[in-house]
Amino acid sequence: MDARNPLNIGAAARAMSNFGFHHLRVVNPYEVAFQGARSAVGAAAVLASAEKYQTVAEAVADCSLVVGTTAVGHRDLQHPLQRLEAGASVIRTHLASGACALLFGSEKFGLSNQDMSHCHWLMHIATREEHFSMNLGQAVAVCLYELMRDPDARPEPEKGSPASSAEMERITETLLTALRASGYPKLNASDSFEGAVRRLVRRLRLQTGDAEFLLGMLRQMVWKMKNKQ
Question: For residue 7, is pLDDT > 90?
Answer without folding.
Answer: no
